[in-house]
User: Fold these one by one.
Assistant:
Number 1:
Amino acid sequence: MATITVDGKDIEIGDNERLNVIQAADRAGVSIPFYCWHPGLSVVASCRMCLVETGTKNKETGEISMMPKLVPACQTPAKDGTVVVTDSPKVKANQNFVQEGILLDHPVDCPICDQAGECWLQDYYFDYGHKERRADIHPFTSKRRDLGTHVSLFADRCVMCSRCVRFTREVSGEGELMVIDRGSHAEIDVFPGFPLENKLSGNVNDICPVGALCSTDFLYQQRVWFLEAQDSICTRCSTGCATQMHVNQDHLYRIQPRYNPNANDWWMCDIGRYENQFVNAPERLDGPRLKNSTGFEAMEWSEAMREAHGRVADVALQHGGRHLAFVLSPFLTCEEAYLAARYATGILPDVTLVVGKVPVVGQDEKFKGGFTIRAEKCPNRRGVEEIARGLGKNVLDWNGLLAAIGAGEIRGAWVTGGYPEAWIDDAEAATFERLESLVVQDILPSPLARRAQVVLPGVTAFEKDGCYVNQGGVIQTTSWGLRPRGGAHVDGQIFADLLKRTGLYQSAEVLRELAGAVPFFARCAEGVPPAGLNLVTGQEKRPFSTELGTVSHPTPTFRSEASRMLEVESPTL
Amino acid sequence: MQPEDKSIKWVREPQLGLTGRMYLTPLIDGLATTAKHFLSTVKGDGFTRQFPEERPEFGNPLIYRGVHRLNKDDQGRVKCVACFLCATACPAHCIDIVGTEAPWNDREKYPQSFVIDELRCIYCGMCEEACPVDAIELTSLFDLTGASREEMIFDKEKLLSVYDMTVVAEPSRKEREARERAPAMGKGH
């Protein structure tokens, strides 16, 4: 164990933990301010905000020898015997100078800046700032300009921390951004004709500590202090990025990544971040429908469920359970898939469980920093497969189902969907015309829903609680932030009602039940920690406690982002 | 309360005399009171006002908290920068703003729509205090009426027209301060 002294307080860190002084000081409960350092990027030590006094303690004599000059805490490794002083007059004077220097060249247009409320410059001004402005200049030289589709640059507000430049060079790997000009003229820019258009571009808005880079999509939509944050999981590919959804008055304003070393680190892609219009799509299924001779008629939920149950149960009882297919969509949460499987096998134990269609688009895209956008565009194939295998006697995949229908072996089906995009074409849906009965539970209209006898509207990932298992076998929890749209019901509630369970559907209880029923999920019996659990290896890639921070911003209480970034979550493993 | 309590003084209602019982004298007494008030009102008693013909006078109309207005800048554009600080400060949640990018070169953001529900407003003046650019101010217009609820929801155009209506009598804070400063600066030169 290495012993480090921070402001007179000794703390111990593990031998294999490679911490810098900022991280070590945080363990001691001392926060050192910084702009340019980011745990996911290389160290440049250019902002000079984190300068502290350091020295070494002689183990034998206990004598402390200090360095004469201040050193950047982000660049100084914390080793055995390191002594750090963060509250000396020298350190405070430096923080004061740095803040004043940045503010000299800053327009202080906080009232119209989208970052206001989650701005590091604002936070640090209160904690470390020079309280009066000695130079009466108001730099306002340029208006907003686009660096790419999703990124707006307000050059005046920039503090030249170069986080965004390092991000495009080290994480996304495209290197579109650069610093042009020198000294006080320095600016972030792109080469003419080469805009910032990579699939991770939205992340630069998050890591910008001030309002220089703002999300064009979110620009002026809402002041951040009105937003409520809800932890969620992205469902657009099988990476399963931990995210936060920011909501006000039941409207989803933006999605930001949440730090999880076991899934996505600090990042997420622009698809998951920006392509969420399907939540409020006007064509969303808004109530249960029953097919009659002329078309679809609206009906009550209780009646629709009785009708749906009656149709599939008839097929099973008439022809045998094997001839009824229950399709578990990879967009269902584990809990929902479990309840669905319980319901299906409750009709007859040999009902065929089918793992729903797994949409695969292109190839996995791996970026320079290791972040990967998966070709498998669903969040929970793995979880659903395990549940189907664990509970079903007959298990098929989607192609197997199509073949079985073609061969006349399947006579009725209950298909769950939840796909954010069109997932089935007319030709494929036509296969299902051979069935005697078809119940479709989905969020958007589809060729399949048109052919169904009963249509039940489910909800999107933003409207439900539960767990997803990503491609690496990491199970993570998501929680609802929006209320179900229109007359839709939460899928878990639908299955709970079908199982005649009383009361509201509680995903945590179902998960406990699932952990007991399917051995793959046994480790979830005590719940799922914030960083997720790897159900396959049983081990986390990195212990959560050594890696710090999150780039996602506000919490309902809007603590300083920096303090949140340094928040150490203790592993419950 | 005890009936034998010494501190209680018991009084009996006086018996009416003959004149009293004829009701005539009390009637004349009452008419006299009415006539007295009538005469004093005609003479002008300092209390009764002939509203709305006669308008009340304010000690200082500049600090009265009546209907809101949205100030204009020297180019006649809305001064508001759509920062939402008034909406944030508003305890009645009566301000609804939609901000967007400004069409002008020297400004980043402006309100595409700015709506105040004057019925919901409690006229506390917090919006005026919160405003960083002195764009929203409360005027001395107090007799606000409308035939419907919709009429009392003031949009940006209406709030700007309140400015045009009141700007002469009640100059904005910035102008007042400039006027106060002007003589002092003159001395310096």
Number 2:
Amino acid sequence: MSGYILEMNSITKEFPGVKALSDVNIKVEKGEIHCLIGENGAGKSTLMKVLSGVYPFGTYQGDIIFEDEVQQFNEINDSVKVGIGIIYQELALFPDLTVYENIFAGNEITKGPFVDWNETIVQATRMLKKVKLNVTPETLIKDLGIGKQQLVEIAKALSKDVKLLILDEPTAALNENDSENLLELLKELKNQGISCIMISHKLKEVISIADKATVLRDGKTICTLDAKKGEITESIIIKNMVGREIEDIYPKRLDKKVGETVLKLTDWSAYDVQLGRKVAKNVNLEVKKGEIIGIAGLMGSGRTELALSIFGNPKNYKLQGELEVHGEKKSFKHTSDAIKAGIAYVTEDRKGDGLFLIQDIKSNVSAAHMKGISKKGILNLNEEVKVGTDYKKSLNIKASSLEQVVGKLSGGNQQKVSLGKWLFTGPKILILDEPTRGIDVGAKFEIYTIMNALIKEGLSIIMISSELGEIMGMSDRVYVMAEGAIKGELAIEETTQETIMELATQ
Amino acid sequence: MNLFTEAKSIVKANIRDYGMYIALIVIMLTFTIRTDGLFISSRNISNLLDSAGYIAVLAVGMTLVIVIRHIDLSVGFVAGFLGAVAAIFMTQLGFSMWITIPVILLLGILVGCFNGFLIAQLGIPSFVATLAGMLIFRGALLNVTEDTGTIIINNDQFNAIGNGFIPSLMLVNGLHLLSLLVGVAAIILYVYSEISTRKNKMIYGFDVMSSGVFLMKLVLVSAVIAYITWILAGYNGFSWTMVIMLMVVVIYHFLTTKTVLGRNIYAVGSNPEAAHLSGINVKRITYIVFGSMGMLAALSGLLFTSRLQSATTTAGTLFELDAIAAAYVGGVSAAGGVGRVTGAIIGAVVMASLSSGMNLLGTGISYQYMIRGGVLAVAVIFDVMTRRQRA
């Protein structure tokens, strides 16, 4: 017996064009809480998906050893059978079913061919006690707060005799009280011998709860820290998380000319009616001509929501405060108004809400600026081809022809099409949301070069990014956001990755 | 590249679009052979196209509705009801046909916009909203025809829409002159537009198909138009229904392929979120598409009423499903964003050809339904397969 409940040795996982994990090692002892830390995109979630069988055996290299046996999971059920339970950030509960139905969903207690509902309720009550959730099993999931839903998920995992519980940022959506409860529960489960892997961005949590912590960066294991040796401290973790130098992947801008203010937010708030909370809180922000503003922060810190609230408010937030564009007060009724005012928004999710994947390159490029290829509502299809050709050339979009369907392009080329579409609208202020997510280093460099060229032409760029290197390498000024609020504004000279991380994890 | 390989590669690249034409030709040839030429006779083709008219115009509108990822089940009884209203206007209220037709079309637009309101503004799923409409208009149709039963229309002018033909001017060797002229005009218009498009492309310096293949295409399409014209001119010439159908296709084809509005419709269909973020007013597009559907439903009702020369209590029954079938045979995709107006017309003609051919052969009605169902399934399977290959 090795004393380890789980060993993952030399795990390597490749996606077309990207190495998501290379040679990752992690060892979890029985009855320990092991935290997995790293920047967005470091490979934490991918690693957990390998472990739980979402990526089946054979699609990765390396060994998974669970309870001293080499495991080959072909699907999620295989990992559940040996006692691995995973709880994702987005909860997988059925909101219109009761607590007891949810706990035993897919794992029904049966008597002959029928579900034994009485026994189910008895067992569910037992599980609820275990996770210290004080509700009746007949409660509907949608009537529970997010913190209690989280506990139901854990109860569901416990009902399957879980030995290793994996939690992917369990407290990201929870308030302080619920977070504390959850962490207490994890400690208790640990005392009952249940091991736990927790992915977290909140360093204070990690410090308070972790026995060990493994840091991932760029798909590699950087180190494993041990609480007993006093290694789990904020400064050591941050140093290992960001570690890398900013290499020469960010082209330099030589002549910086900053002009007048082009966009200004004063006490800007956005209230999401559906979520029932503010997604942007009292934001004050200023963008000048010829500037790249970096907006840093972790996922879910409200950066995209802020951008959308400026860009014609497509999600119908309730807005407060003042938006000034080129010195004029604006209130946009529709995205088309924002486009008219010279704002463009390149989405972070180019496949979801950026591109028309079944359409070809030229139709995508012209989609947001039909006026540019039409007269009185009648299209000039030849002009469209010309425009498409121009952007294909100037942005170096690699495709067999303009008629190529965008869904078939690589991520980098899709991103360039997305960029081309917005440049064609002739914007003065360009909002780039995660401009280089999921694209390779070469394409990244090209996009940075394009950004610099645009700045030279007098545009202003607001760049939202989770990559600290990108923020440091490209911005002139940095705002750090957390929980919908601007936690700090930093001049690029005084910005270090550590200061950003500190503000972002507040 | 020689002529043949170039033509082959063009057909291969557009297999979904050309496949439909090929299928239509195969169906027509089969029936022609099986009926010893009766199928392709002037009289039969003329009847066939006339009987396809009221479904074809619905299929055009339905194609756009499906393109933006919705469905409209109400169109059948909207057509039936508005047809009955038209009959009441003309027989009981004594309105002339020239007032009745625009008023009915306007009413159709209103009904469509109300559907648009339910779907775009209130967010009700289109299936449910228009199912409710279907029931309501079925009731409304029964209600207005309750006292009188079938309403007979004695207005010859109006009845000519569904039964009459354009004047012949004079007969040349037994062929109708005006119809021949219309055919010639169509060919000239087609050749002219193709040549000017090609010229324009060359001015911009784009690749165009080689002059040999281009000529082949011109000759082929012109020959088809000429042949159809010749067949029809030998009977009674073009009917008013065909003229109306043709106008609807030409206008909608232009709208969908050559205008900003058309482009926005396809954008909304292929990704509504991206369309919204691109500054396209998705609600407005939904209103317009359903409004146009309502107008075409009214037109369909007018055509059908005129064809029967009366409004009946069951007019419009299952029109919506025939139109949906025609749209799918015509290549519209349920996933949204894909589908052509010309395809919808071909789909409607395919379905009408099947009915007509099987009637001539004396196929039992039970087999007719099964075969039409089979063709619909095969068309969609073919569609899914060719799409998968490309994706």
